[in-house]
Every structure is written in C-alpha cells, then in structure tokens.
Amino acid sequence: MGKLKIVVNNKTKDSIARTIRMSGNTFDKISLISEKNGISINNIVNQLIEYGLNNLDEE
C-alpha cells in the first residue's frame, strides 16, 4: 500500500454532518497537516477515511 498524498483541492458536493471523537494526539497531527497545507481539518479527515476504506484488507 502506498502512502497517502493529501490533495489540496478535494471538495465534495454531498456531505452529511456527523460528530466524531478522536484522541488529542490524532487531532494535533491532523491540525498540523491542515495548517501546513492550508486546507480544512474536515477535508483532511475525509481524505484519510477514503484512503483507509479504499485500502482496507477485508480478509
């Protein structure tokens, strides 16, 4: 499995509002990526989830 490349202009047209909980350490890492790339935390979280789902080993 290759490494995830964050896409700066990755906007989706459909969305559903949900609340999720994550560890403070995870939030800090995502927040840093957000600041370095100038994109929203929400956008990054969605890309991470998509990458994980696309590379999920379902065996």
Write a brief caption for the model.
The chain is mainly alpha-helical and 59 residues long.
Description of the structure:
- The model has no long low-confidence stretch (mean pLDDT 90).
- With 59 residues, the chain is mainly α.
- The protein contains 2 helices and no strands.
- 2% of the residues are buried.
Largest sheet, in brief, is: none
Portion of residues within helices: 40-55%
Annotation field: number of helices: 2
In what range is the share of β-strand residues?
A: under 5%
Give the overall shape, derived from the CA principal axes: globular
The SS-based structural class is mainly alpha
The average pLDDT is: 90
- Unreliable stretches, pLDDT < 50, 5 or more residues? none
Radius of gyration: 12 Å
What string gives the helices and strands in order?
A: HH
* Total DSSP E strands: 0
Termini Cα gap: 15 Å
